[in-house]
Fold this sequence. Notes:
B: alpha/beta
Amino acid sequence: MATPLVVSEVFKSFxxxxxxGIKLPVVNDVNFSVAAGECVVLGGPxxxxxxxxxxxxYGNYAVDAGQILVDHKDKIVxxxxxxxxxxxxxxxHTMGYVSQFLRTVPRVAAIDxxxxxxxxxxxxxxxxxxxxxxxxxxxxxxRELWSLPPSTFSGGxxxxxxxxxxxxxxxxxxxxxxxxxxxxxxNRRVVxxxxxxxxxxxxxxxxxxxxxxxxxxxxxxxxxxxxxxPRKAIAA
Amino acid sequence: MTDTPLLKVSGVSKFYGSRIGCKDVNxxxxxGEVLAIVGESGSGKTTLLNxxxxxxxxTAGSVExxxxxxNFRDLYHMSEADRRFLMRTDWGFVHxxxxxxxxxxxxxxxxxxxxxxxxxxxxxxxxxxxxxxWLGRVEISADRIxxxxxxxxxxMRQRLxxxxxxxxxxxxxxxxxxxxxxxxxxxxxxxxxVRGLVNDLGLAAIVVTHDLAVARLLSHRMMVMxxxxxxxxxxxxxxxxxxxEPYTQLLVSSILQV
Lengths: 236, 258
């Protein structure tokens, strides 16, 4: 089996046309790979480009140059050049993403938000809901909230819905953008256990964790993003 | 993932005299895919939608559609009768103003039933049963089936229009500002409904909207138009999170945060 995720010579900058076209370099020459069953943590100070790297991998940001190679259905797909349809298929079957914030859809109940990734993959709705219920109770989300839309939930509650949604599928690659940021100690521990279980299953994970305790517990390797910072290159 | 597109649009242009309606638009649409066309008023969104759906004849270009038998046919070279049949059965068109897509003076049930009769259903009981089922799916209670849409609120009319369009199991639906004139709570309900139906039925859809939040929620792919040209085209998340063109950056930065 191929390495699930390989990032090679990726460059990214933003051109702000509304600000006289200034060019903001984000990262230069990013190179790394994530093996199956490995959890790599992106390190470095805020604003260095950690979230941007995750967004490029997930296809939310375009890249200026380089390749992002994903092992998708036994074929290698280059996210940097894939058409939208392929990226959607990769997201559906191969690569999951737990963002910092939940983008809520009005009126959709928390349990359906969590079950949705399974339903789109063709799992029967009742089975998907059972799995969703299991995850939500594991993450200690009070049962009376399950049937409510998460837009009114607290930050920590929304984040748990988000985590459950990200962890419900058996995606081979999982991108985690500060999934534990607004959680209490008990739930942080649950998430650490869930990440460990994903490792056992051979999932390749790439994450951002500012909480030192969580980082210590989950990281197999820390990748210092400052090494890719164009600002460092200018300073040097 | 199927490997054959449902619709192939090549070089579609429409000129009104010397003025550009839309120019040289190319794209393909696959089953189950939702494409949003965004841009400000006058950018050519609706002209393009009308050209693709053959409501308007373009000045140049071709649109090919994969029929149920698997063969592609050029829509502008079909007979009027074939085209009308396609529009009544395999396609849906949801207008911004429900009055343009409904018969206001016949009952809600008849509005839904009419499309069924167009595909050959003749059994009154069955038609009524299907109509009731569809009213339920768009959250209109069964006891309103004999009321005319004139007696419905704006949001209900729009939901009825959707039921009327989807009852024949179309494979492609065109929507022109489907949430246009509705207040936000009604809009949220309609969006949730459309999103669910598109997912459940595996519909392909082309949605014209000036509302980027609607585009984010409903579409997989997005086309940004300005002065009749497609200036940016890509995965919806990518266009909204990392807009490349000056005009798209302006659009995205102009969204009000609540």
